[in-house]
Amino acid sequence: MTLFEVIVLAIVEGLTEFLPVSSTGHMIIATALMGVSPTPFVKLFTIAIQLGTILSVLVLYYRRFLRSLSFYYKLVLAAIPASIFGVLFSDEIDGLLESPLVVGITLVLGGVVLLFVDRWFNRPSIDDSDDISYWQALKIGFFQCLALIPGTSRSASTIVGGMTQNLTRKAAAEFSFFLAVPMMFGATLLKLKGYFDDGNGLSTMEINQLIIGNVIGFIVAIIAIKSFIGVVSKYGFKAFGWYRIIVGGVILIMLMSGHSLQIL
Q: How far out from the chain centre does Cα 41 lie?
């Protein structure tokens, strides 16, 4: 990859990872427009730069991570369903990962859900994600399983899950951020292990690209998270719903036009 491609992909990751718009869908469009080949390192890069975005959550919400052990128990409990289903249906998930068509369709369908989610769940009673019960955390975890389908968006599925449990938009979004930390950290470790198990190595240039990508992703994610919380608290999710429908439509149009799209 060139430095320009590294910067663009890191910005895309930082902007989209915590928003309910599917970072996978945006990576498909970004790599297709730039002509980036899905080499083993490129696939590793798109996952490994999540470490920078994880750090942004830890920095912005460090006080929340120091409050109590029950906070961690709830995160672990919420992470269990997707972890189990991810292992049990790994072959099926890998098959879906080969289909940009699935991403385009799920982006559109998820967008339709976001158009109406504010109307469906308009009587929240929990304004602090620390106040959710263990049972509610587990149910949100089951919603996260939907994110195993590419294009659904981990953020969107967990936010909607939180809103079904009477969380305010802000509290649901914040719990989604917190839940991303163990899930994304685990995914990064697995990707690194697989990369090196396959006999791949990292050159000095590739290490530098990973460092640059993580730094940029960290900075952009901080801006994205702070902006996102303000927007959804005031205006809700309808704009993100329309945006998803547009992005999904772009992918579907590109596919119908004969573009060869790759999921990294």
A: 20
pTM of the model: 0.89
Strand ranges for 125-170 from DSSP E: none
Confidence of residue 144 (pLDDT cuts 50, 70, 90): very high
State the distance between the two ends of the chain, measured CA to CA, in whole angstroms. 13
SS3 (DSSP) at 17: coil
> What are the pLDDT digits (tens) for 173-197?
999 999 999 888 888 888 888 889 9
Q: Are 212 and 7 in contact (CB under 8 A)?
A: yes
Cα 246 to Cα 11: distance, rounded to the nearest angstrom: 20
> Could you tell me which residues come within 8 angstroms of residue 99 by beta carbon, excluding any fewer than 6 positions away?
150, 263
Q: E strand or H helix at 41, and its extent?
A: helix 40-48
In three-state secondary structure terms, 69 is helix
Q: Token pair of 151, please?
A: 């294009």
Task: Tell me the residue type at 112.
Answer: V
Of residues 159, 145, 183, 144, the one with CA closest to residue 236: 159
Cβ 264 vs Cβ 103: under 8 Å: no
Convert the pLDDT of each residue in 35-53 to its tens digit.
888 888 988 998 899 999 9
